């Protein structure tokens, strides 16, 4: 496939990139997320992603790798935002650990375990705060690339998509999609939704989602320029929520590695929701680094604005070779072979 599955007819002069970060306590359930050395460590991942994307790595630091040696998506994102000369913005939707970097704070809480309690009790309030942020950003940019970092977020996405009536699968950060674990969790969550006869889309997020979802939905509503969602299953869940609210769904961009996940069948899911998705293929199979080639095995696949940074770089007229060079030089700077 070519670098972009579709090169849209979009022109812009002032692009910006932002990432909404948050936690879901589902990431601490064994087998749910590979976005950390162990389930407890996943609670720090959004903070670390944001710090890396905003500040980059410092001299003497190592490139963050997954337990199996895959370079974290935030590393690639940082390299490409430097290439594009874009300073990213971070929105704290609800974290367990206080971030060390400047960010916009909507004062949300970490997402709870939807099997036991409302996951996002303040979903309606977070949606309104997202609208306010989107309106504020209108004067900053004519194109917004909006990403996320929420470990466990594909499981909350599954719960929300199924809660809205879509019989679809979702992606996974594991090489082997751990769909059975997610389906068991989703079964219990859907039982709560059905038992309480929950129909309103934001109430479904309240019951089953994570704090990123209503904030991104709100920003999408408030921002009037071009907006593209960077991510796969998680951003598709946001699109489904917007559709259920009779709001416009922006296009989403994700990686070829998500599209290759047959369990997720992201193309089928996108079609069922009625959304628009584009795919970017950086061809890490041939880039010459094992830490990147592991994406082709199905590890990690996406996250932390990865697909959005790839898309922006290409749309800003950087060639595949220039994009590769920026990524490899960044890895070399910190000794990652």
TrEMBL record:
GO MF annotation terms: nicotinate-nucleotide-dimethylbenzimidazole phosphoribosyltransferase activity
Signal peptide: none
Transmembrane intervals: none
NCBIfam families cross-referenced by the UniProt entry: nicotinate mononucleotide-dependent phosphoribosyltransferase CobT, PRK04447.1-5
Protein family: Belongs to the UPF0284 family.
Name of the protein: UPF0284 protein F1737_07630
Protein source organism: Methanochimaera problematica
UniProt lineage: Archaea, Methanobacteriati, Methanobacteriota, Stenosarchaea group, Methanomicrobia
């Amino acid at each position: 496939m070519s670098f972009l599955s579709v090169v849209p007819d979009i022109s812009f002069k002032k692009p910006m990139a932002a990432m909404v970060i948050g936690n879901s306590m589902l990431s601490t359930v064994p087998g749910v997320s590979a976005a950390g050395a162990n389930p407890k460590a996943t609670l720090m991942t959004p903070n670390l992603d944001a710090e890396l994307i905003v500040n980059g790595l410092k001299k003497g630091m190592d490139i963050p790798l997954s337990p199996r040696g895959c370079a974290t998506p935030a590393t690639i994102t940082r390299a490409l935002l430097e290439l594009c000369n874009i300073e990213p913005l971070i929105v704290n939707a609800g974290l367990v650990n206080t971030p060390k970097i400047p960010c916009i704070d909507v004062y949300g809480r970490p997402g709870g375990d939807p099997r036991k309690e409302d996951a996002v009790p303040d979903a309606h309030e977070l949606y309104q705060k997202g609208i306010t942020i989107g309106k504020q950003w209108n004067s900053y940019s004519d194109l917004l690339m909006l990403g996320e970092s929420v470990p466990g977020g594909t499981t909350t996405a599954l719960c929300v998509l199924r809660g809205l009536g879509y019989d679809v699968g979702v992606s996974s950060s594991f090489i082997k999609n751990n769909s059975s674990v997610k389906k068991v969790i989703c079964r219990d969550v859907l039982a709560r939704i059905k038992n309480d006869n929950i129909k309103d889309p934001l109430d479904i997020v309240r019951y089953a989602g994570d704090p990123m979802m209503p904030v991104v939905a709100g920003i999408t509503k408030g921002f009037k320029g071009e907006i593209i969602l960077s991510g796969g299953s998680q951003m598709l869940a946001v699109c489904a929520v917007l559709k259920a609210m009779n709001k416009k769904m922006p296009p989403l961009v994700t990686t070829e590695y998500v599209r290759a996940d047959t369990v997720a069948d992201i193309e089928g899911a996108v079609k069922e929701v009625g959304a628009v998705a584009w795919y970017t293929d950086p061809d890490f199979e041939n880039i010459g680094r094992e830490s990147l080639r592991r994406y082709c095995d199905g590890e990690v696949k996406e996250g932390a604005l990865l697909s959005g940074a790839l898309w922006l770089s290409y749309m800003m007229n950087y060639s595949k070779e220039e994009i590769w060079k920026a990524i490899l030089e960044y890895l070399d700077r910190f000794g990652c072979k």
